[in-house]
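A.,

Following up on our hallway conversation. Structure tokens first:
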């Protein structure tokens, strides 16, 4: 029996569990709460309004589209891995692929409908970023399998998308958005590379071709460090553009220290002396 397929509709609780599982909302619902302190910076007078809550809801729905569409497109691959198959309701047979597409499109249109209430700029940006999210996973394009584009597309889908939509829901586009987008995008790319480093051996055996597979894990670690330092510099730039208290810039080193600590604790990445000083015999950056 396939959930969401008429006329055999399962218990509402089961439908809800499938929606939660496919959207993977538990993975980002708390992270998206960072929207609230962001609003307190860019539009403090509007923080305690319905606009802020609607912006949060729109971001949850559109992020749900990104995750659910990815799981629909990856259903066949995930079915080969017991852990991923258990997480993916399509791979585990709880719902059909068609039902998965319908749910993901439902998340998309619901999120865009909320943005339409807030701002035309937010709606247009949300629409464009959602196209990128689809191309990131769509098997005929699959940007996540193209070196370099995998990082850029990932950053736009998970990080820059949410930032820009939130910003434009409260303010017209201006120069201050540039350092904020750069900061978030660089942090997102660094996080993605750290996962690629963790999965390097598995991805190599599976024939996955991403940025880390091309440059190698040691050079990928250098990229992570470079991106974290650049993101911290963008933070300092954003503090100036937003006319915040200059003392806020003193927190910039945390933009390097905390992510590295997180990567180490989650066993994504380990840095050694070999990383800090690559030998001259290292393979070329691009193979």
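Then the amino acids I'd put at each of the 287 positions:
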């Amino acid at each position: 029996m396939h959930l969401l397929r008429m006329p055999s509709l399962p218990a509402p609780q089961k439908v809800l569990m499938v929606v939660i599982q496919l959207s993977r909302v538990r993975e980002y619902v708390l992270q998206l709460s960072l929207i609230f302190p962001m609003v307190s910076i860019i539009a403090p007078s509007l923080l305690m309004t319905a606009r802020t809550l609607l912006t949060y809801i729109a971001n949850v729905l559109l992020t749900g589209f990104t995750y659910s569409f990815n799981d629909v497109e990856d259903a066949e691959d995930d079915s080969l891995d017991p852990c991923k198959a258990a997480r993916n309701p399509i791979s585990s047979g709880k719902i059909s692929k068609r039902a998965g597409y319908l749910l993901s499109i439902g998340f998309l249109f619901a999120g865009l409908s909320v943005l339409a209430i807030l701002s035309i700029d937010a709606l247009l940006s949300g629409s464009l970023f959602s196209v990128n999210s689809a191309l990131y996973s769509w098997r005929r394009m699959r940007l996540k399998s193209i070196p370099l584009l995998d990082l850029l597309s990932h950053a736009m889908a998970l990080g820059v998308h949410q930032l820009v939509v939130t910003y434009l829901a409260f303010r017209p586009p201006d120069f201050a958005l540039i350092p904020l987008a750069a900061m978030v995008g660089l942090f997102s790319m660094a996080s993605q590379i750290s996962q690629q480093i963790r999965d390097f051996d598995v991805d190599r055996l599976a024939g996955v071709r991403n940025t880390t597979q091309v440059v190698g894990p040691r050079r990928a670690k250098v990229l992570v460090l470079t991106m974290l330092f650049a993101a911290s510099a963008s933070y300092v730039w954003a503090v100036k553009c937003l006319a915040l208290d200059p003392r806020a810039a003193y927190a910039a080193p945390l933009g390097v220290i905390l992510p590295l600590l997180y990567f180490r604790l989650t066993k994504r990445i380990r840095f050694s002396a070999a990383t800090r000083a690559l030998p001259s015999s290292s393979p070329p950056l691009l193979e």
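The two ends are 48 Å apart (CA to CA). Curious whether your intuition agrees with the design.

B.
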